[in-house]
Fold each of these.
Amino acid sequence: MCCNQESSIMFSIVRTLAIATAIAGSAGALAAEPPEVGKSPWGAEDQLGRLNLMTDASRAAVLSRVAGGRVYDLSVEYFIGMPGWHAAGDPRYQIWMTHTPHGTVVDDPIGVGHAQNEHVSYTGSAVSMYTHTGTHIDALNHFGLDGRIWNGFEAREHLGDRGWRKTGAETIPPIVARGVLIDVAAGQGVDMLPPGYRVRRQDLVQALRAQNLTLRQGDVVLIRTGRMKHYEQPQAFMDNPPGMSLDAARFLVEESGAMVVGADNLSFETFPPEVQGNYVPVHTYLLAQQGAPIMELVQLEELARDRVYEFAFIGASLKLKGADAAPMRPIAIALRR
């Protein structure tokens, strides 16, 4: 979308949140208790949340069912101008050359001489990007409530100038689990969900029924909206994307036991937010209250094309100490049914 459109959406989000805050602060407006972050059933020092559901036995079980054959790459490509929430201040992806063959001949940076530099071509590059750029996983410290994150860790105690000392991206282990694709777009009979479409619980139930699949505890569940078809047109990709509702997120985690959730968009949820009662964003619900990591910008088009709905999910993210997200390059391999 253009800058004005993107800014308009961000303004709408801020305005809606402000209204929600005002409502929550009105005397007698809400009868429910204020929402709080989740306390881990795995102990007071737990930093993994629902990733504790992954065990040696669960990894062995899924790998024993690998059918072999094609390996599906679930990562997007990184390129200058790629989609991002730039209006919110997120830095853009950049790549630049630090060394080129001709430049090395001219500069002779390590003093090996003109002849050596002419003979041996040398190229180097560097990149700069926001940690939530491209295919990535959100760490549990990404969203919180009242200065606290998952398991009650407080920002004033655990957040320094070098990042979080709790639940940083370096704590996310390599993930090997049963993966499930829920093709919501196909379930609605379309190639791509309409702009702003809010995926509800019933949409997920309908798609799973059509795919003849049932979710299990410990699954990595990936939602296809079809928006990835616009990935190489960043303005179109970012313009009012479809995404998840809170009741759909609850279905995935609380009802079905998902360990990690993800989607092919960059927001996972959709906007404007649903303001009902003691409102929390879907991100806050999943990360801070349920301890469920979120993956975004997951490339699901090839899985959907081949109707591979159940697979071994294998992925590892960069160990960025203290970060609230990290890039990853997950793969999928079909399982025997």
Note: Confidence is low (pLDDT under 50) at residues 1-31.
Amino acid sequence: MTALTVIASIGLAAWLYLLLLNGGFWLSSEREEAEQNKYPEPKVWPRVTAVIPARNEADMLPGSLTSLVKQDYPGAFSIVLVDDQSTDGTADVARAIAAASNREITIVSGAPLPPRWTGKVWAMHQGIATASAGDAPPEYLLLTDADIGYRPDVLKSLVVGSTANGRAMTSVMAKLKCDSLAERWLVPAFIFFFEMLYPFRRVNRSADRTAAAAGGCMLVERTALERAGGIAAIRGALIDDCALGKLLKTQGPIWLGLSDRVLSLRPYETFEDIRRMVARSAYAQLRYSPVLLVGTVLAMLAIYVAPPALAVLAGYPANMLAAVTYLLMFIAYQPTLRFYNRSPLWGLALPLIATVYVGFTLDSAYQHVRGRGGLWKGRVQAEVGRQ
């Protein structure tokens, strides 16, 4: 057996495993839309408070905060927004929206970031403390980002799924924008790779140790969070959503899925925008390990890049094994492309797209070496995330 045949065989074996034994990640079948009519509504709707950390999000709030104000929720629902040291008038925009609304909205001026905390988690901590104060704290906290928009009945759906199943957390991966050239090239693959790392079916099985969440939309049972040590238990986490998912899975069932009704409002108009988004946390995902970095790069090349190359350049039987692997890769990507209303032919470009993500991951490690790891809105947070 030649070396090229060995490489082709490894790629084929990897894709057979991914399609057949990795929780059916590629089917994108875990969907929030099915939750609302699948379970009975609670007899008494629990109190919910949305907590929004906002740092320089003045342009996002008219869409995101307004969508929360318009939630058609039968129970008590209030909002706490933490202005995290913004310099763009975020608090003023929030106050204007609050003044025009009959919803209870509290705006908190965020305190300076203390040592050993990442910025978003510190802002969430302050918002949760405000929401939980008083004689009637909420049963659930909707931890959401300032760039996420909601259809009017989403909160109701999240609460129905959570109460019916006794969940510690229900989380939804917001549907990212897919309009610009960069978004059309790279956004569906971002979701595909996330599902591959954290198969949603496995996340949603109580007996499976796989845990994850999507930080844009996390409905959390407040007492479960308190039993787990509060949000302070993940104070230094750079990838805070997955850290919170892991923490709360120790307290009860969690659920993670996709949705057409929870939408990211933030545009990524250029490839550079997406590079910054990925590079912020990619090396943290590898636990800042050079060994894991090298292993990941080699695995991505073997699984994504080698199959089309060998299908064209290698001789028999390596070329046939590689062609079958490329076909499996193409098939696996189709449900994600359909979710984003993209042509099936984008599946042919997945090896090239994967190569771009390899570059982003290497850049993430490079930024870390430069002392700029985890850079987000002026804060370098990778060193905090290592603690």
Note: The first strand starts at residue 48 and ends at 54.
Amino acid sequence: MARPEGIEKIVWGIALPGFAQFLNQKYFKGFVFIVLEFLINVNARLNQAIIFSFHGDIKKSIEVVDYGWLMFYPCLYLFAIYDGYKDAGGGNSYSFFPFVISAYFGTIGVIYSPYFLGPIWLPILCLVLGAGIGIGFGILIRRFTDT
């Protein structure tokens, strides 16, 4: 079971990559994650794509986003969340699985998003699917390795 401090860091990391690192007093790492998040966000025009997606204009969100920059976002986002969680003392030796698999699936979601649901909704759905698969994979590995 995850410790409450770890869950708190996950939630802050979801809000903005780097916040969990500041809460863990890892100021340099937090600053780097925040700068990278803003760099990727601005260059990918992610906020504009989010606005169009939430208004139901998926075609416009596909047109406005820069996929070259957006490809970096799932990995940065999930790594920052995992790093904050790990630094808070959360998890065990297999706790990285949900984060890694979720980042992978989120990136796959970005790749296929121009064809289905756009650059916001498909990657989010893929992140959730990846997290579920990663949790299941971690449970299976623990079951077979812990005796």
Note: Residues 12 and 59 are 31 Å apart (CA to CA).
